[in-house]
Design brief:
With about 170 residues, this protein is an alpha+beta fold. The chain has a single domain, classed as Protein of unknown function DUF192 (Jelly Rolls, Sandwich), CATH 2.60.120. Helices cover about 25% and strands about 30% of the residues. It has helices at about 1-20, 25-30, 55-60, 140, 150-160, and strands spanning about 40-45, 45-55, 75-85, 85, 95-100, 105-115, 120, 130-135. It has a six-stranded mixed beta sheet with strand order 1-2-3-8-5-6. Strands 4-7 form a two-stranded antiparallel ribbon. The protein is globular, with a radius of gyration of 22 Å.
């Protein structure tokens, strides 16, 4: 008898829960969590749309296999501590420019990397906090050069939208 009561209560609760509509899912929030979402970031005096690679897997894959980038589209690679960076172009199908950027947002240097090149491209400085890869020539066409600044507020918003604590990467 006791078991019948428990089952009856559970059945009533289950039925009463069925007549409620599930709360709507915020699709924008769910989508923003992914690497595939480009975020607006001011680079020098130009606007870019950057995907933000944070995890080791995202950074190791980078732009491998990408056949083309729209003008102004690229990827930022975020690191928790300043360091000397090195990148290679294994399985990368297009030539890229890479900007090595200090923690205060200052672009230290910009280098061009050739598609498929498996040699490492190193930063000169060991004070690089993040990098930005764009299609080869984008920085020059956009008038962006060493000494220009990347808008850190924009990157912090992108990191937060992806669910990361921005202060871990940008002070």
């Amino acid at each position: 008898m006791k078991m019948f009561r428990i089952l009856s209560i559970l059945l009533v609760l289950a039925i009463s829960g069925c007549d409620r509509e599930a709360p709507p899912v915020n699709v924008a929030s769910a989508t923003e969590a992914g690497l595939e979402v480009p975020f607006p970031v001011r680079v020098g005096r130009s606007d870019a749309k950057l995907k933000v690679a944070v995890t080791e897997l995202e950074k190791s894959r980078g732009l491998m296999g990408v056949a083309q980038l729209s003008d102004g589209e690229g990827m930022a690679f975020m690191y928790a501590a300043p360091q000397r960076m090195n990148f290679w172009m294994k399985d990368t199908l297009i030539n890229l420019d890479i900007a090595f950027v200090r923690g205060d947002g200052t672009i230290d240097e910009i280098r061009t990397m050739e598609a498929g090149d498996t040699r490492d491209t190193y930063s000169r400085s060991d004070q690089v906090s993040f990098t930005i890869e764009m299609s080869a020539g984008w920085f020059a066409r956009s008038g962006v050069k060493s000494g220009d600044k990347v808008n850190l507020s924009d990157l912090k918003k992108a990191l937060s939208a992806r669910g990361f604590i921005s202060d871990r990467y940008l002070k």
